[in-house]
Records
---
Amino acid sequence: MFLALMFACSGNPAEQAPAATVEEVATEEAGEAPAAPAGDAWAVDASASKIDFVGAKVTGSHDGGFNTYEGKLYVDAGKATGTEFTIDTASVWSDADKLTSHLKDEDFFFIEQFPSATFKSTSIGEDGTVKGILDFRGVSAVLEFPATISVTEEAATLKAEFSMNRKDWGVEYSGKADNLIEDLVLIKLDLTFPKG
């Protein structure tokens, strides 16, 4: 879900964020959907939420994100027990039209072959750490990242900022020889789930 860039003098913003942990999917988990979390499913309010990214290259940075996605947060006894999302990769946007078009081709998200990305959690820790299987661009891997989750009587929120390596999901495009793209991408989640 994930690319953009920052001026060399400023550094890559992804380097300032906690790094997500990425592992291979265990053999016994391969091809199997994670068990359904306990509790009620609260659907994400996309109009009040954001799934964004920031990527960096030698000469500058770009903001981006996704406009279309569906997701749920499972809540049981006032605690988040799991989450799942499906993202329409064709809904990717960036702050430059030419870049947005490039992000859709095989150098990046390859939306024609991989029209969606999915994430299904396997656990949410007491500290808010979210762990699950991300299937993006035809690659499935276990992704673990820190998050801040709040649950009230009216709604729940999940907020997170973390870095991930685009090459873990097969995005190998290096950019131009004099304007190389950084491997680390900053992911920014600001999600709201009304009760119900």
---
Amino acid sequence: MGEPKMLELAGRSLEMRGIPNDTPRFVIRISQQPERPRALRAREAFLASAGALPEGFGLYLAIKERSATLETLPPGAKAIVLPEGFDYLADGDVMRVSPKTNGVRILYRRASPHNHFLTTERCNHYCLMCSQPPKNTDDSWIVEDIIATIPLIDPATREIGFTGGEPTLLGDDFFRVLRLTKSYLPQTAIHILSNGRLFSDENFVRTYAEIQHRDMMIGIPIYSDVSDVHDFVVQSDGAFDETIRGILNLKRHGQKVEIRVVVHQQTYGRLPPLAEFIARNLTFVDHVALMGLEITGFTRVNLEQLWIDPLDYQAQLYQTVTLLADHRINVSIYNHQLCVLDRRLWSFARKSISDWKNEYMPECEGCRERDNCGGFFSSAKLRYSKHITAFVGEHDGE
């Protein structure tokens, strides 16, 4: 059984035809439908596979091994040849093209359940394990790309996510993106990752609530029941108090809130007291996610302060999950492998890692639970549990 490869979401084209390098970057939807209505073709990119190319598309795409299909390119048409790593592209996907750098980035994949948009790299935290280290730069162009993409997304998409950095730092643009998403994708659930601090402001949370989306949830991290521990993990004094006020404000306005806890050396010891804190003070939250560590970004620099083998905190994890579940709080375990989880926790484990960066280790070969297991982040090759073991016998792990 071959190991799945990490998908290439960004790269450089092998060739651009008919596109001057001073052309502004643009966002375009991919089509594999040669009979597409002519009124739509000019705004879409036709992904060639074989045979003659239909006329009228604004752009033509070919993967390297099929580049010969562009020999029948209509006169004056624009075309791009992509590396073989983009051979997963399909009808309905959306891409950004940057002619100046010969760059391409896939912004949305129609067949994927894991479509998330980075809204900004700016942040008012400096978390020890941040997977997207913040940059204090003007990246407002990212919002414009998102706004260009949203109308191109299939309305049947079940969920999309917005991440950062800290999305709320966009201010009015944050609400602009959410309103546009509601307008074009009224049946699509929205999940937002935020540190929650700006929701401590009454005007900000009221504006958010007035969007009145039918299914919008905001995931907010709390790393300890002790403010000093939380503030240390996020490297920002006063963060805990603002975050708690933000959560209380959101729920007072009837908004969905998820609490996220990344489990590592600095947080695992107080998991049970944190569960008690949530059960006593935040029992009305909609979900609690207990998450494994992703070894990328700042985590690599701080790995010795953060890493702990998941097997070594199973007692705390079991106590935490049990306490939350006993209080009828919806709780899940993300980013963990079944073979290192207490068997009593398996029903709480979810396959949560985005498909484009979800991999398995050599030790997983032949495991009968692989399809049920959360697997690994691709970055986990730097360090992962010494106790990864394939379930190969009928009664393994019983």
